[in-house]
Amino acid sequence: MRADDSTPGNAGSPWAVAAVVLVGCWAVAITVSVQGGGWLVDQVLLIGGLDRLVPLWPGLCLLTVLLIGTATLPLALVPRAPAIRAIGRAWLVGTLALGALGLLRAIPPVHHEAYLTALAATAALLALIVRWLTRRVGTTGDSGRDPVVSGSPNPPQVVTLLAAAAGLALLLPWVWIGALGGLLETIIAGLAAAALGALAGALLDARFWGHFAAGEPPRPARLVLVGGLVAGVVLLLIGAGTGQSGTQLPLLVTLPPAGFALAALHASDRRRAQDHRRSRFAGRTPATWLVGLGVFGPLAFTDPEEISLLLVTSRDVPFWVAVAAGAGLVVAVLLAIAYGLWLARPSARPPRRAVAAATAVALLVSVAGVAITAGQPGLHGEQLFVVLREQADLGGLPGGTGKAGRDARAEQVYQRLVATAERTQADLRRELRRLRLGHTPYYLVNAIEVDGGPVVRAWLASRPEVDRVLVSQRLRPLPAPAGTAGGNAPAPTSPPWNITLIGADRVWSELDVTGAGVTVGSSDSGVDARHPALAEGFRGGDDSWFDPWNGTRTPTDHSGHGTHTAGSAVGRGGIGVAPAADWVGCVNLDRNLGNPAFYLDCLQFMLAPFPPGGDPFTDGRPARAPEILTNSWGCPPLEGCDPRVLRPAVDALEAAGILVVAAAGNTGPFCGSVQDPPAPYPDVLTVGAVDAQRRVTQFSSRGPATAGVAKPDLMAPGADVLSAMPGGGYARLDGTSMATPQVAGVVALIWSANPDLVGDLGRTRQILRSTATPVQAGQRGDNCGGEENVVGAGLVDAYAAVKAALPAPSVR
C-alpha cells in the first residue's frame, strides 16, 4: 500500500472519483423518481376511489434499498482511498435509513400521531445504531489508526448557534404558510424532528467531515464543494424517508442544498482536535440542529392528507406547500452561499460567539414574529366523531302524504331524534364538560364531535354508551383565501343539450310545470345567491342558509361546485330543470374536503332549519324543511367516514318524507366503485352520468354497492354540462355531481305537478324508474354483475315522469 493511499484526504484514482459521481447521480435519480412516483400512485388511488395500497411504500422502500444499496456497497468496501469508502458508507447507511423510515408509511395517514411516534422511535434507534457503529469503526479506522479529524478553535456553541440559525431560516417559510395540528401531534412532531436531526448528526459527524478537511494547508473550498455534495445526497435520503406520503416531497428540495451550509460550518474548524470527544460533539451538533429544525416545518405545519391532488384545483394546501418548498430552496441556497463566503474563505476569521448568538436570536425573533402576525397561530388538530350505540326508534310514525302529511312526519322524526340524543348523551356530555373538552352534539345521527387525540379516543371507546370513535378530519387554515372560481362560457340562449335530452324543456312548454311550490336543499360548497340564474329562487328568511365552515350569513360560494349544481337543479335562464322551484343551501365542503361532522351539520339543517346562531336541538323548524335534497358529494375514509356512519341520518330523512338524491361518484369504470356514503344506501336515489350520446361515461361509478345493493338507481347527463358559476358566469363541467341535481330537479317537477306526491317517496321512485329510457352501457365486457349496476333503471325522462305523475282528471 502506498503511503498516500492511507491519507484520509486522498480522493483515490480518477476511476474511483467517476464511480462516486455516477453512484451519487444514480442515488438522487432513484430517490426522487420513486418518492414522486409513489405519491402519484397514492393520489391516483385516492381520486379513483380505490382502497389504499398498504404494501405500496414497503415495496418501494425495498426497491430503493436494492437499487441504491447495490451501487453504494462496492464504494463502501472496495476502494483503497478512505474518503471514497466514507462516502460509500454514508450513502449506504442513509439508504438503509430511508428504507427503514419509509416502511412506517404502511401506517394509515388517519393515525398521524401513531405514525409520528413510530417515526421518532425509529429515527432515534437508527441514530444510536449509527453512532455505535461509528465508534466501533473508529477504534481502528480504515488504516489501522484514527482518521484525522478536524477540531474547532471556537467553542462548540458557536457552530451550534450558527446551525440553529440556519435551521430557523429553513423553518421560516413553514411558519408563515402552514398551521400546527393538535397539541400532542405537534409535540410528537418535534420529537420526531429531533430524532431525525440526531440521525443526520450521527451520519455527518466530525469523522465524516474529516475526510474532506484533512491536508496541509487546509483546503476549505474542497470541504464545502465536495463535502457539501456528498452531504446533500445523505440529506436527500433522510428527507425521502421523513413524513407520510406527500410530506417528504418539499424536503427533497430544501434539505440537499443545506449540505453546503453544513460543510461551510465545518470548514471553520481548521485546527486539529485536541480532544476527540469534544470534536465529535461539535461535529454532530450542527447537522442535528439544522436538519431537526428543517424537517420540523413540513412535519408539524402540514397535514399529509391535505397535500393532495383533490385540492390542487385552487390555491389550497398543495399550492402553498409548493410555495414553501420554493422559498425553502431559495433560503437553503442563500445559506450555502452566505456561510461559504463567511466561514470557508482561507482568510476568514472565526466568528465570535456574540455574532453567532445575535444571528440565532434574530432568526428566532423572526420566526416568532411571523408566527404571530402573518402565520396561522393556534392549534388546528383533528376532532373525534363519537357514534353512540342507541339510535332513535322511528317506527310507528303518522302516515299521510302531501305537504301537510310530510310536515307532520318531519316534526315527529325531529322530536324523537332530539329526545333520544338528549337522554343518551347526558352522562357523556357532563363528563366532557368536566374535563373541559370541547364538543358538539348531534341528533340526526346520535353522535358527538369531540376535541381530542389518541388518549381521549381510547377513553371514549371504552365507555359503554359508545359504539365507535372515528377521526373527524379538519382542514388547517390557509395563509390567504383560496380565491373564487369563475366561468368564462357564454350564457345559454336556448336550453342546453342536457335539458333537452331529458325533456325538461317540454315539461315547461307543453305541461306548464316549472317546479313552483317545491324547495330543493343543496348541501355543497355553497351557492352564489347573487347569480342572475339563482337570485330569484332563494327562499329567503332567516332559516334558508347555514355555513358551519365560515359562519357566513348570506349564501356564498368560492369553489363554484355548489353554484354549478344548484344551477342545474333550479337555475333560471334555461340551465335548471325546475327553474321555478326555490332553494336553500348549506356549506359542507368549502375546500373540496369535508368530514362526518360537517356533512351531518348540513343534513340536520335540512331536516329542521334554524336561524343564525340557533341551537339545532331547540330551534329547529321541521315545517321549513326542503322537500328534496341534492347531494353531489361522498364521504370517503380519508375524511373520517366509515360505510355506516351516515346511515341513521338517511334513514331519518326517509322517515320524514324528504327525498335524498346523491351522486354515485366519479370512480368508474371500476365495478363496485359506488362506495362512499351516502350513495351506497338503499334509501338514497343514487345517480350516475351519461354523455350527449346517451352513453355511460367512463368516470361514472358502478355497482354493486355494499351487501350487493344494485346501484346506481338512475342516470342523468353528466358530461360537458353548462351551468352557473360564482360571479355571474357559466362553465361546462363533468361528473356525477352534475347529473345528480338534474334528477332532484325532475322530482321537483313531479311534486310541483302533483303536490299529493310530496313525501310519497316509494311512489315517486316507482314513477322515475318506470319512465326511464335506455342508455348505452359502454363497451366494457364486464357488466358488473348485471346491467343495473352500470345504468340503473336508465336515463331519467322528465317529460314522461311528470306526465305519469299528473293526477287523473276528475269525472263529473
UniProtKB/TrEMBL annotation:
Transmembrane segments: 12-36, 56-78, 90-108, 114-134, 155-177, 183-203, 223-243, 249-269, 281-299, 319-342, 354-374
Peptidase S8/S53 domain segment(s): 515-775
Active site: 524 (charge relay system), 561 (charge relay system), 737 (charge relay system)
Gene3D superfamilies in the record: Peptidase S8/S53 domain
Keywords for the protein's UniProt record, in alphabetical order: Hydrolase, Membrane, Protease, Serine protease, Transmembrane, Transmembrane helix
Pfam families named in the record: Peptidase_S8
Family membership: Belongs to the peptidase S8 family.
Protein name: Peptidase S8/S53 domain-containing protein
Organism: Micromonospora qiuiae
